[in-house]
TrEMBL record:
It comes from Sphingomonas arvum. It holds the Pfam family Glyco_trans_1_4. This is Glycosyltransferase family 4 protein.
Length: 356
């Protein structure tokens, strides 16, 4: 079986690695050949991290290249699309892109519909509101990172599956933890998600400044350096060191604001932390409420005071950290591991190829 996959970015984007690339070895073993074609390359992803303005001409060339690519998959059995083929363009061209009878699978791990349907600019809403509905409605299947996204897709596509974002729990494993103090409170993400840390940054800076905990921020990019908060260790994200950075933490955090787009997040940070045996603290927003078992694998914290209390509990109680971390590791292996989800995707693709 041959699958052509269209991603938004190349491998330096977390979405491409999480939702596609890590599955390829299992797909190959199952007789599924996957060729993936990113819209925008790693240079674009790096520009987001450094705060540089993307090259608009390069983006236009990328869109033109993708349009040409759409006419070169005559031997494909299935097309797999992450999000959409042409972001911020009307759906009409995308709907005409595939030959009749070719199964198309759309994948969502973010609420991609919100920036269109609830855009503050009336002209954008007029042009693009509801864009994803005909795309999902015409798909053979839609895979969604959580139930919030699936609730959007199910009325449009009968074959909608919740496939959580996962990690390879053979790579993400618990490391031996040092008893040295201070322990490390950590966050890993991207420049686009760094803003979610805003409400708790003063609290984290205070903990770091007083020496109560080391605060490690991985992947926030150039924007984080301009915030001026003391006591924060800003680490550049690199694929080769990503697992080691998470393993070096003692507590993993995922604060979120609550809005329609953020509710579609898939909780990947939490899964990384839990797979490495860390207790977690997270805002009770969207799928976080399903991933975190409050009081078992970590804490759900709504207010700054909730965050302060949860951090104090974990910082001062190593046995509690150990118990919660072990419970989180078990939960990650059972529900959020590559080994638990790859067979479901493989069965979906084999079924579609058989015409099922």
């Amino acid at each position: 079986m041959k699958v052509i996959a269209y991603t938004k970015y190349d491998r330096e984007a977390a979405s491409t690695r999480q939702r596609l690339l890590q599955y390829l070895p299992a797909f190959t073993k199952a007789g599924i050949e996957v060729e993936y074609r990113p819209l925008l390359g790693d240079d674009y992803v790096r520009s987001l991290a450094t705060g540089e303005r993307p090259d608009r001409k390069a983006i236009a060339r990328a869109y033109a290249r993708r349009w040409r690519q759409l006419h070169s998959f005559h031997d494909a059995d299935i097309v797999w699309v992450y999000a959409e083929l042409f972001p911020w363009l009307p759906a009409s061209g995308e709907r005409l892109a595939f030959r009749p009878g070719l199964p198309v699978v759309y994948d969502m791990d973010d609420a991609f519909f919100v920036p269109y349907d609830a855009n503050p600019r009336a002209a954008v809403r007029h042009l693009l509101a509801g864009k994803l509905r005909p795309l999902i409605g015409g798909a053979a299947a839609c895979t969604c990172g959580n139930n919030y996204l699936a609730d959007y897709a199910k009325p449009l596509c009968d074959r909608t599956l919740v496939v959580p974002t996962v990690v390879d729990t053979d790579r993400y494993v618990a490391a031996d933890r040092s008893c040295a103090q201070p322990l490390t409170v950590g966050w890993i993400g991207s420049p686009s998600t760094f803003a979610q840390l805003g409400p708790v940054l003063p609290l984290l800076a205070d903990l770091g400044g007083q020496g109560k905990a080391a605060i490690k921020i991985v992947g926030a990019g150039a924007r984080a350096a301009s915030q001026g908060f003391p006591g924060l260790s800003l680490i550049r994200w690199e694929e080769a060191t990503e697992v080691a950075e998470v393993q070096s933490m003692d507590i993993g955090i995922m604060p979120l604001t609550d809005d329609a787009f953020v509710r579609g997040k898939s909780g990947y940070k939490l899964i990384q932390y839990m797979a490495c045996g860390l207790p977690v603290i997270a805002s009770p927003v969207g799928v976080n409420r399903e991933i975190v078992q409050h009081g078992v694998t970590g804490y759900l914290a709504s207010t700054v005071e909730d965050w302060r209390e949860a951090l104090q509990q974990l910082i001062h109680n190593p046995d509690l950290r150990c118990r919660m971390g072990a419970a989180g590791r078990r939960r990650a292996v059972e529900r959020y591991s590559l080994s638990s989800q790859a067979p479901r995707l493989i069965e979906l693709f084999h079924s579609l190829a058989r015409g099922g």
